[in-house]
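Components:
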Amino acid sequence: MQMKEYKPLIVAFCCNWCSYAGADLAGNNRLNYPADVKIIRVPCSCRVNPMFILRAFQRGADGVILCGCHPGDCHYTSGNYYTRRRMAMLFSMLDYLGIERERTRVEWVSAAEGAKFAATMNDFVAQVTALGENKRLEDLRCKR
Amino acid sequence: MRKLSLENINKLFAAVAEDKTLYLPVDQSDGSAKYSKWAEGTVWSNALNTVRSPKDLFFPQTEDLMEFKTEGKNIEVIDIRKESEDFVIFGVRACDVKSFEVLDRVFLSEPVDSYYASRREHAVIVSLACSRPSETCFCTTFGIDAINPEGDVSAWKTATDIYFKANTEKGEEFLASIEALTEESDDTAVNEQKAKTADIMKKLPLADLTTDSFGGGKTEELWNNPVWDEFSQTCLGCGTCTFVCPTCQCYDIKDFDTGNGVIRYRCWDSCMYSEFTRMAHGNNRLTQKERFRQRFMHKLVYYPENNGGLFSCVGCGRCLSKCPISMNIAKVMRKIGGDK
Amino acid sequence: MQKITRDQLITKAVELLSNGTVSAVLGWQKGEFDYDITPAVFTTEEEIKNNFVYNDFCGANFSKYLVAKTKKLEGKILVFLKPCDTYSFNQLLTEHRFDREKVYAVAIGCEGMADVVKLKNKVDGIISIDYKDDAMYVDTLYDGTVKVDYADVLAERCINCKSKKCVAYDELMGEDGEVIDSARFDEVARLEAMTPDERFAFWQNELSRCIRCNACRDACPACTCEKCVFDNPNSGVENKAPANSFEEQMFHIIRAYHVAGRCTDCGECSRVCPQNIPLHLLNRKFIKDINECYGEYQAGAEVGSRAPLVDYTEGDLEPGEVFERGDNNA
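Structure:
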């Protein structure tokens, strides 16, 4: 049997107003980033609650990245400030439970930063690929 | 009666584990004991009993029943049942042995639960007589003899030796399989210990608890007892009592969507939970009082009514030591009139 | 041993009940043994005189009961609060979970409560307990009377008591204490210093014992949702039993996360856990992180304070920087 090349599954939560538009721009500019990144559009980065992140891992994600407007630029004024605190606490807790800290990331990407979006995704995919499959926060039932 | 020096107990475990999986109480990192698979180096716990009951081995907390795979408009149903492997449960106390009878009446009556039945058929139960009962023990209330436990094989542990006696055909086979390790012995030492333990049993604080006020046909009499209001007032509604109970047998069947199919599984349910027996119209029992009443009425009235007077409590005392607010069946029985 | 006695509390309860200040009393009811004490609502003098007890095993935090007990109550309910309970009391008030007007709170000084599990690990067959000044004398089935030092059975949460100060009450019995500079974060720091593999192994061992009885959640004074997400069949994560290690992890992460910034560190979660999982170490991790990242914060220290996770500053650290704390602590 031939070993299949390992391709991580990445879930990217992108806020509607900045990061999703940033992803769009990356597409319009024909910038390359791996197709293993699955984007989920959310109204604001603060819509993402910790359960979303955990559920993404449960369903087979190897890495989860959350993108929102730059602090100060939130469409709803302050949403991403809350995100920042929440995710800092969540990531720290995951790390405390022994789950690889490289599997999660928050990045601020504006609508004008198509290039940053593509670069971020390339970097994150490379980082997760290096880690390998998510084993510590997996639900085997979803891999049957 | 067969005898083995406790020094050689690990040889016995090794011999048993050669062709059967062996489960026995093993101390955990938190100091409590748990039924665990024996492997070289495993040390048999001295604890009186485990926190989780041995019902786990017949009726696990979660168990996959079947699987569905969908492809387009086709659904494939996959039977994932496997014939259980032969296994031995070693060191089961008299109360827990009795709990198997309570579970059998539920799972082995028609329609037979094949998942449970398969495990039951493949198990050999080696019970262990008690010699240091705890203050929370009240098995005698339910007519259980802690010093003469049932099971396929009964065992008695003294300071230096362990003695075995077979009660069933399976038990005879088990003893035959370890015959080379054991020697024939009289029962003097066992009888001595039995007498000592019997004395202690009489001194237990709950020794005077009786079931006289309970049993089949008492539903109307006990339904409106003020005890339910009073004692359920501070019940947290957690499931501790039901999950550590060796006889609680309620479960829920659910579907888990895996993203590429469905796994139908069952898991223990607790009558203490607000979602217990939830139906299309909502819940039967809307308040904690009703849920609280359900648990005790089921154990002390409904179950004996349907099962020839057999109570579905075995007096193991797990709920007495584990309830976060120390509310338990002994208090309920006392209040309603369990005093002699 | 507690300085406040059962008789003092009974006198107080009877006085307030008979002069009409309160119509019910939330207190401790004696059990079959000396240690299995049940929280109970008393409404008559007779009940109080016959069944009310107070000793070293009265560890239950009563604050959460006020949410349910004040709802349909005529008049006021008397509640006895230990110092740590007063923090939960304030936190619930901050979240508008019960009507302060319906409660008469009597704060009682606390010398630290005993842990039944610790006692049972030391002594078999407990018949009765005599509380003397120097130690408890336990009458047992097997070993006669055994002397047990209070310090040897002191609950973990009391060894690391954060405060003996009563922060909310209508009346104080005994002496008020001070906030203590405790070593409660030492164990968290010990875990943080481990490698991720060691931490993972540690938590797998602990969480794999979980039987999902929900006692930690149900006893928690900060967990007061009308309907928990884990009980809601429409939430997609409802589960009555952990099917695998993922579900164990998810439940415990979310349980601790949902009370992050609101947890007063009363330690009820660990006390009630039938499997002795050190759940407070999850909660304390959040408290420690919050203190280090967003400034010292003690939930329940005062009514009306804004919890750190529903607040922000423009200069907060980035999620990626949370691992590289040290010089840049806020």
